[in-house]
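The methods section describes the discrete structure representation at length, but only in general terms. What matters is that the chain and its backbone geometry are given together, residue for residue. Nothing conveys this as quickly as seeing an actual entry. For illustration, here is how one protein appears when written out as sequence plus structure tokens:
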Amino acid sequence: MKRITVFCGSSFGTEEIYKEQATLLGKTLAQQNIELVYGGANVGLMGAVAGGVLNEGGKAIGVLPNFLRSKEIAHLGLTELILVESMHARKTKMDELCDGVIALPGGFGTLEELFEMLTWAQLGLHKKPIAILNINGFYDSLIELTKVMVEKGLLKDVNQQMLLVSDNIDDLLNQMKNYVPPTVGKWIEKEKV
């Protein structure tokens, strides 16, 4: 993997460990010569992961919609800052640039980005690993919900397993490097539920 897109909050959240792990993820990516692709802001967990990369001498590429330039405070110290016209263009560009995705704690935007990448993978539009760094159990409820989707016949088990999860950065990166995408389609036949 040459580049990983990280989706995360533009706020720090309530637990210091979120910021610590975001910074550590950035440092680890740089140490492993993996470039960061992210939302381009200098605030919250977004700024922390970029700072971790840059402070370790790594490369960080930001993708920021023009209308968020002042709201999210564009990071001016990046290797490259790509300005785009919309949120959809942002996700498309981030997907084009990366070999895999990691979600850190975040809000609606982070979930929307994560689930769009999962949906694209489920539909066979890409075969990239998609992962959650489950810091301090932040995503436990979401992971349980995906299991309920399988139990209720709305998601195939093989598609639920596309979502890689760990609370350990090195373990998560190893899972991503060894990821094998599913070879079956997404459609669930009624008689198989």
Remarks:
- Residues 16-31 form the longest helix (16 residues).
- The beta strands are 3-7, 35-38, 60-65, 80-84, 101-103, 130-133, 163-166.
- DSSP finds seven helices and seven strands in the chain.
- The mean pLDDT is 93.
